[in-house]
Amino acid sequence: MRVALLLLLLLAVVALPGAFFPQRTSDPNAVQQYFLDHPDTADLLDSLHLFDVYASPWFSAVYLLLFVSLIGCILPRTWVHLKNLRAEPSRVPSRFTRFDVRGQARAAGTPEQVRRRLDAALGRRYRRRLASERGRTADGETRTALTISAERGFGRETGNLVFHLALVGLLVVTAWGQLVHYRGQVVVVQGDTFVNAPLDFDSFDTGSWYGADAQEPFRVRLDSFESEFTVDSQARDFVAGVTLTETDGSTRTADVRVNHPLETDDTRIYLTGNGFAPRFTVTDGSGEVAFSGAVPFLPTADPNYASNGVVMVPDANGGERQLGFNGVLLPTAAADEEGNLIGSAYPQPLDPAVVLNVWVGDLGLDNGVPQNLYLLDTTDMEQVLTTAEDGTEAPVQVVLRPGESVELPDGLGTITFEDLPRFAAFDVRYDPSIVWMGVFAGLAFAGLVASLFLPRRRIWVRLVAGADGATVVSAAALARGDDPGLQRELDRVLAVLESDQAATSKEDR
Amino acid sequence: MNSDLGDISTLLIYGAMASYVVAMIAFAVDVSALGVGAPKDRRRRAAGIGLSTMWLGAGLQFVAIVVRGLAAGRVPWANMYEFTLMFTFFVVAIFLGLQTRRDVRYLGVAVSMLAFLALMLAVAVLYVEADGVQPALRSYWLVIHVSVATLATGLSGLAAMISIAQLVKARSERATVSAGSAAMAASGATAEVTSGAAGGTSATATAVAEPSTQPSATFGSRIVGSLPPSANMERLAYRLNAVGFVAWTFTLVAGAVWAEHAWGRPWGWDPKETWTFVIWVIYAAYLHARVTTGWAAEKFAYFALVGFMAVLANFYIVNIFFSGKHSYAGV
Ligand code: HEM
Q1: Could you say which of A47, A212, A314, B124 is the most buried, measured as most Cβ atoms within 10 Å of its Cβ?
Q2: Does the CB atom of residue A446 touch ligand 1 within 6 A?
Q3: Which positions fall inside the ResB-like domain (chain A) (predicted)?
């Protein structure tokens, strides 16, 4: 048991670093940032697994050892306990003086009668064994004593075992869930549909036992998205109205909210983010429409939803001089005194505007390196500049409101900001272990309560016929662990013998 | 939302804080009277005043919490300020509840001080206007998970106060024993054995307190002498911690269920989750040690104090200085 204690403490210690260093699993961006901020220590920390503590060899070693120790200890105890459940209560100890909680009484009636009354008083909770024993009194006479040994509270040990076994169960189902789960993340613009298939997700990860046939091929269309904010821009509600088309072709509509995922047969769809996806049309120098579509702009940390985004036009000018735009979307544009847009004043689109820089050159989309759709790779591009009246050159900034269109300089074409639909980000998750986690967590909780609060008590009584036809009763009680109610319990049982003899004395303890 | 009600709630909190200060002074007067060698059976008027003002403070605080909930139009435990209102209320209420069944007036100073200091910090630093909450907090799991977390914090806090008293007392018990007072050693030993039954307490307490009436006893040792035997306090702390552990377990499980609903994963090792896990493991280790080893009682007290320190760190340090998914609860 020292080992278990040591390992428990060790577990607390090895879990802590994960609270101090950013973790890849929960916050990958912060890890990247850490590498930028502390280039000299980050590699060392990384080699010690401090950025993925909970998958590190040393963390795993501690909890696996803990569970090995747990199983090694609990299985034999379960065995013994099962045997004890069937065994009779232990014999009455020969001397009661070594127990702290004792009682004595004299009662009218034969020992047999008194025993019957005590037996009834014990109640149903006790398992008991009635016996008699022969002994010799101090003056050499033989006499017969009747005994009761009673015990209750097997639930305490049962609860303890259930608690520990449920912890094992929790670990096992969690590991199983890791193996069979899948999770996809997708950004959907209002009016668009996604299919629950790996290719349709922006990111998709699975456990190693994942089978594609486990994936229900349902479809989800984002019909509407509504948000609600207080006057000081605090979010109050987000609702994504969706139409779900299930595998069998049936459709239904539903609202997906934070805290209210949409459930299909075995999958859950969570609303994890939202923002705006301005719709643009870009024509190139020849007047051809080179791009048309809604582009999700990612909200920054700004509570008023100032969002960053990129428009890539690889098809412009036959792909020779590709166009790229990067910039911000301001849902409610706020301007300074000179009329320059400086930020967003409210998260709802009261007066939306986009401010874009214009680039021309090679977008770098064809060289096979995966592209971040929210970042413009400008290595092979040139920013489009304009010459002011005084002859200085400055980058072109395109400012557009919905419905507006601008001519780009140098005959590059035009860009039109058509309208401003919203997007919603969804997580689609399949993990059949969740239900079982709930079951084991519930078992562990119930077991814990039983193990801590169910009293485990033994009561022994010895009855000897007294000189005057009365019966002399002596009793003792023992509990496992702290049990402040033990004396009261013994008193309760002996109280049925009423005032025969000033009832019980607590004895001079 | 309703700022008038919010202001009323804040005023009531000031009232509760004032009550706790009065209670603290009254309890301190009571304790110091022991120090000057007042007879054991004197009527403890000051302690009586302390208790009444504690009740008053708890009543005011209860109303303040209810009004706060009305002002915000939701359950009043959704940010650090409100969390503090809740857990200090639980510390005081559990103390008063215990007092109805056994004499725990010796805790009065510590409890009123803890409540006052925490409220002071809350009012001065953590205060926010009563208002609605973010979508992520709109869930009945907020009601369940956070309220039980405040209860658990209250239980651990009260138990920690008892553990401190226990350690102080144990030191003086050891000193008395090593001073070679054979009689004392004997009665101290009795105290160890007996106090299981609630009824046994008073008799043993007198026995142990005896040296305090000796003329040689110092001011401090008289005060310490009036504390119940350390073994009794250890047992009380254990029982509070056991209930507290159940509450922590529930908090953990309910939190995982909620995280599953809100974020699509039951557990993500977010800093807050990590700390809560660590606290849970520390208390599990404490119970383990308590149930399976025969250590000296003082070790358990240190253990429980480490646990409570982790609880405080989880609340004050993690909420403010660590960013994670839980940080929206904000200051
Ligand atoms: C994180 C939670 C816990 C873990 C991982 C854990 C683990 C273990 C392990 C590994 C053992 C085997 C000890 C040995 O080597 O003999 C054990 C035994 C035991 N545990 Fe726990 N335990 C936990 C919580 C608790 C709690 C909260 C209690 C509270 C009552 C408890 C009570 C016991 C008892 C009574 C034993 C039997 C000790 C013996 O047979 O001597 N455990 N536990």
Answers
A1: A314
A2: no
A3: 1-491
Q: Where are the beta strands (DSSP E) in A168-278?
A: 182-189, 193-195, 203-206, 219-229, 235-245, 251-257, 262-263, 268-276
Residue type, A151: E
Residue with tokens 């003082």: B298
Q: pLDDT tens digits for A439-492? A: 999 999 999 999 999 989 999 999 988 877 888 899 999 988 778 889 889 988
The residue of chain B with its CA nearest to that of A437 is B266
Which chain A residues touch B311 with a CB distance below 8 Å? Answer: none
Task: Give residue A8 CA to ligand 1 midpoint distance, Å.
Answer: 9
Say how many CA atoms lie within 13 Å of A226 toward its Cβ. Answer: 6
pLDDT tens digits, one per residue of A202-214: 888 888 888 777 7
CATH topology of domain B1-133: Four Helix Bundle (Hemerythrin (Met), subunit A) (1.20.120)
Q: Provide the pLDDT for residue A357.
A: 93
Distance from CA of B199 to the nearest CA of A (A): 9
Q: Which two tokens stand for residue A120?
A: 């009834």
Is residue B188 very low, low, confident or very high in pLDDT (cuts 50, 70, 90)?
A: very low
- The complex's ipTM works out to 0.84
